[in-house]
Design goal:
Elements (H helix, E strand, L loop, with lengths): L1 H14 L1 H15 L3 E7 L2 E8 L2 E8 L20 E6 L16 H16 L5 E6 L1 H12 L4 E7 L12 H4 L4 H11 L8 H9 L5 H9 L16 E6 L7 H10 L4 E5 L6 H4 L1 H12 L1
Parallel strand pairs: 3-4, 3-5, 5-6, 6-7, 7-8
Antiparallel strand pairs: 1-2, 2-4
């Protein structure tokens, strides 16, 4: 019996390794006080993690292809005592998908509606946006400036630059595309085994293509709009970022009035993974 159980666990780890990893992450975050919640917004079912605490709340927005739980390297000890709201974006994680094509402007609108339900229409929040989440956060800062108290952009998208990321990195069509993307994300290679890459590829949701196609068309791009951001802003980047090059961060910091910029020397596109201590310290200092 014990041998059969061990064999079953081994097969599960090889066939669905991310499912096993998700379980451990959920337990870890639950022990840290984060609870899983769901609610419908405009016929779209959104999932988020929430830790109760004091105001102003802190909203964390993940990047393309990620989900709420991917913040786990920094979540357990982040800003102790503060309320945390960590949603999965539409067509990501355990959130639902729209039934029609959508783009970053739609994502920002849905999140604004959801956020109003969680904190009220007059309460301010601190927002931390990573990559695509930074683009969404900037759209929110431009449309609802009174809503944001402070804004942190981590490896943020939202500006056009050359050369743009290959489409295959944003919406992989085969296992080799996934391998190429993973090899690009970090300064120190992750070297994921084949069975993990296979599970990553299996998890790509086809409806996410609508969002990627919208991004590639430049819909909702923020070139020329950043002077309208009226929120104290910190821009954080990995100096070794190969997905969104560091000069984009300098442009963001230069064009957003009063923004401060910080580059982390040994990080690629994922500071919350590679440079979690440095990132956490910067967030604690800026958002306290």
């Amino acid at each position: 019996m014990a041998l059969a159980s061990a064999a079953a666990i081994a097969v599960a780890c090889l066939w669905r390794p991310l499912t096993i990893a998700d379980w451990f992450v959920r337990v870890r975050l639950c022990l840290a006080g984060l609870r899983s919640k769901r609610e419908s917004v405009s016929d779209l079912r959104l999932h988020w993690l929430e830790r109760p605490g004091s105001d102003p709340p802190v909203l964390l927005l993940h990047g393309l292809g990620a989900e709420a739980g991917h913040w786990f390297p920094i979540l357990p000890g982040l800003l102790s005592g503060r309320r945390l709201l960590v949603p999965s974006l539409p067509a990501h994680g355990r959130s639902g998908s729209p039934g029609a094509p959508f783009g970053v402007v739609d994502v920002a609108r849905w999140l604004e509606e959801w956020l109003t339900r969680q904190v009220g229409s007059s309460s301010s929040v601190d927002v931390v946006g990573f990559s695509l989440g930074g683009w969404v956060a900037l759209r929110m800062a431009l449309s609802k400036p009174q809503r944001l108290r402070r804004l942190v952009l981590v490896s943020s998208a939202g500006l056009s630059f050359d050369p743009p990321p290959p489409r295959a990195w944003l919406m992989p069509d085969c296992l080799q595309d996934v391998r190429d993307l993973v090899n690009t994300l970090t300064h120190h290679p992750l070297r994921l085994p084949h069975f993990v890459l296979r599970d990553l590829f299996r998890r790509i949701r086809p409806e996410r293509r609508w969002l990627v196609e919208s991004l590639l068309r430049g819909e909702g791009i923020l070139d020329g709009a950043l002077a309208g951001v009226d929120t104290p802003t910190l821009v954080i980047w990995g100096a070794q970022d190969r997905l969104i090059p560091p000069h984009v961060s300098r442009t963001l910091a230069a064009r957003i009035p009063g923004a401060r910029g910080r580059e982390l020397s040994s990080c690629g596109h994922l500071p919350y993974w590679e440079c979690r201590r440095e990132l956490t310290a910067l967030l604690e200092e800026f958002l306290s």
